[in-house]
Amino acid sequence: MVLHGDNGQGKTNLLEAVYVLAALRSFREARSARMVRQGSEAAVVQAEVRGTSGLRRLRWSWARSGGRRLQLDGRAPGDLSEWFSVLRAVLFSPELGTIVRGEPAARRRFLDRAAFTAEPGHLAVVRDYRRALQQKGALLRSGSADSVLLDTFDARLVALGAHLVARRRAIVEQLQGPFQQMYAALLHRTDPEDVSLRLLGFGSGEDAVEDRLADALARSRPDELRRRQVLVGPHRDDLAIELDGRRARNFASQGQARSLVLALKLAELSAARARGTRPLFLLDDLTGELDRGRMERLIALLSALDSQVWITTTDPAWLGPLPSGGTRTFRIDAGKAEETRPPSPRDG
Questions:
Q1: What does the angle CA 11 – CA 12 – CA 17 come to, to the nearest 5 degrees?
Q2: Cα dihedral value 138, 141, 145, 149, nearest 10
Q3: What is the chain's Cα-based Rg?
Q4: What is the pTM of this model?
Q5: Which pLDDT does position 327 carry in this prediction?
Q6: Which of 90, 158, 187, 266 could serve as 182's disulfide partner, Cβ 3.0–4.6 Å?
Q7: Longest Cα separation, the chain
Q8: What secondary structure letter does DSSP report for 75?
Q9: Residue ranges per domain, the chain?
Q10: DSSP 3-state of 323
Q11: Which of 10, 9, 2 minimizes the C-alpha distance to 341?
């Protein structure tokens, strides 16, 4: 699916709507209230999805008066796992360059989103850990932290933190091979840089993490009381993305950083396909992100992965040859979509 048109016509808005259904959150707005048009009381996104369970109908709405409401086939879903079994998505957008060059929080978000794509229950683990972290942080900031209560919070942080680290390490292992393959395929060189992923944190294995995290929390207790904040835990983990053994954050060029992020997202999609799931792949604003050669190699990789792909671009001809028979193109003009004929590729 190719969505093309001039800037400011609503291409990314449409892609955002698809992502909201797939992830129940926007990739542009942290607050759902900002997705409601000025002067309106509610926003609604709905779609029909055809998959292994047949035709399903999804409806997401957010009202200023009542917050979010979900309907799956006309009724409230029993739990979110039922919703996510119908639709999931992997997203690439220019803003995701922070995965390579940004702070550790950006890489943790990528890992947790990839783990969520693999297993939607990961979202609950992240939320439970954050809630326990916030509660302990509030107690420390109060200046009157009771040691027994702190022990209770630490025990919960150890259990949840170990679970969180184990899931992150599992997704790193799943991504490692596909990441290396996709990066080499995008560069199409005989000697591409050696790339790898490494989680920097509390070690592998859930039991070992529990022991090390419990010990680290006990040793840091005096400093935490003095500084009134939680100083250790997986909320401070980082993902090392390495090029020839060096941290890409410090040494990757702009072009390398783009290829690394795209390879990570392709690896996320490839790992999902290996697990037997087929998330959508959403790519926003590719026109200025890749040179012509990498663009054509990307299209070939996506064709081989056999998932539904949505791409926004100002110039569809820049995408190069597209798969015949399965490509639909829509021109987006002032928020309206009109189907057009796929372009003939221009000479390079």
A1: 105
A2: 20
A3: 22
A4: 0.89
A5: 87
A6: 266
A7: 72
A8: B
A9: 105-252
A10: coil
A11: 2
The answer to whether the CB of 319 falls within 8 A of the CB of 302 is no
- 257-310 pLDDT per residue, tens: 989 999 999 999 999 988 888 899 999 987 666 788 888 888 888 888 878 999
How far is CA 150 from each of CA 125, 164, 330, rounded to the nearest angstrom?
Answer: 20, 20, 57
Residues 186 and 263: beta-carbon distance below 8 Å: yes
Please report how many Cα atoms fall inside a 13 Å half-sphere around the Cα of residue 301, on the Cβ side: 24
Tokens of 215: 């010990």
Q: Which range (104-108, 126-130, 271-275) has the least confidence? A: 271-275
**Of how many residues is the chain composed?**
348
d(CA 104, CA 114): 15
Six-digit token pair at 220?
Answer: 């840091």
CA separation for the pair 337, 341 (Å, rounded): 13
How large is the angle between the packed helices 122-142 and 104-118, nearest 10 degrees? 140
244 contacts 163 by C-beta, under 8 angstroms: no
Both tokens of 238, joined, read 């980082």
In whole angstroms, what is the distance from residue 312 CA to residue 15 CA? 8
CB distance 253 to 193 below 8 Å: no
Tokens representing 2?
A: 């190719």
C-alpha 338/C-alpha 324 separation (Å) is 20
Instruction: Give the CA angle between residues 271, 275, 276 to the nearest 5°.
Output: 120
Task: Kindly indicate whether the domain formed by 105-252 is annotated with CATH number 3.40.50.150.
Answer: no
Name the residue with tokens 């189907």: 339
Per the listing, tokens 């039991």 go with 207
**Amino acid occupying residue 143:** G
Contact 241, 110 (CB under 8 A): no
Q: Is 25 helix (H, G, I), strand (E, B) or coil?
A: coil
One-letter amino acid at 235 equals: H
Give the amino acid at 60. Answer: W
| Sheet of 336-340, strand order | 89-92, 280-283, 309-313, 2-4, 329-333, 336-340
Burial of residue 342 (number of CB atoms within 10 Å: 0-12, 13-18, 19+): middle
